[in-house]
Amino acid sequence: YLNRGDCFFKQGEWTYALLDYQQAEEMLPPDTPAVRRRLAVTYNTLGLSCFQDGSSQKAVDLFTLAIKYNPTISQYYENRSKAFRWIPNVRESREDLIRLLILDPSNKEVLPMFMGLFPGCSISRVLSSSKGKAIRVELMETTQTWNSSSDPSWLSGSILKTTD
Questions:
Q1: I want to staple 96 with a disulfide (CB 3.0 to 4.6 A). Which of 16, 77, 145, 148 is the partner?
Q2: Which residue, 141, 84, 148, 82, is CA-closest to 109?
Q3: 63 with 43: CB under 8 angstroms?
Q4: Angstrom distances, CA of residue 43 to CA of 63, 86, 127
């Protein structure tokens, strides 16, 4: 199912890819890294499609699933932050922007997003706030747990090269 899902994904048939990856998830040991990464990439891709179509809430739901399957990818938080902004849910958008800042402080999208969500504030002030510190702790615990249960050898897989 993984290989067929990869074929569907590369053909842009994301729904079919998702179905195959979900089938593989049911058949393989729990938390198999190869399956989790593929599911995350696919949910993110579907989320981007929904966001581009104007379905912001559906996009948020899909980005949330991508994050559930791989909480270490800053792009997923960036995408969800943008979708939250359109709902609008400024609080959640801000929290995802903080996660993005922690995971990828050199991201070129951060500054324009930051200025819109935190007008008049500095990045250091937001990150050192009680909310910023709490999000950092939560994110570090989540990513550490995820990383300790993952197989880093799959990172070089071709599906990640084409989508991340």
A1: 77
A2: 82
A3: yes
A4: 6, 19, 28
CATH 1.10.1420.10 given to domain 2-149: no
Which residues make Cβ contacts (< 8 Å) with residue 163, sequence separation at least 6?
41, 44, 45
In terms of residues, how long is the chain? 164
CB 103 within 8 A of CB 139: yes
Q: How many Å apart are CA 110 and CA 14, to the nearest integer?
A: 28
* pLDDT score, position 154: 40
Q: What is the largest CA-CA distance in the chain?
A: 51
- Residue among 59, 119, 63, 64 at smallest CA distance from 87: 59
Of the chain, the percentage scoring pLDDT greater than 70 comes to 91
The pLDDT tens digits of the residues spanning 92-149 come to: 999 999 999 999 999 998 999 999 999 999 999 999 999 999 999 999 999 888 887 7
Six-digit token string for 98: 């903080």
C-beta separation of 30 from 62 below 8 A: no
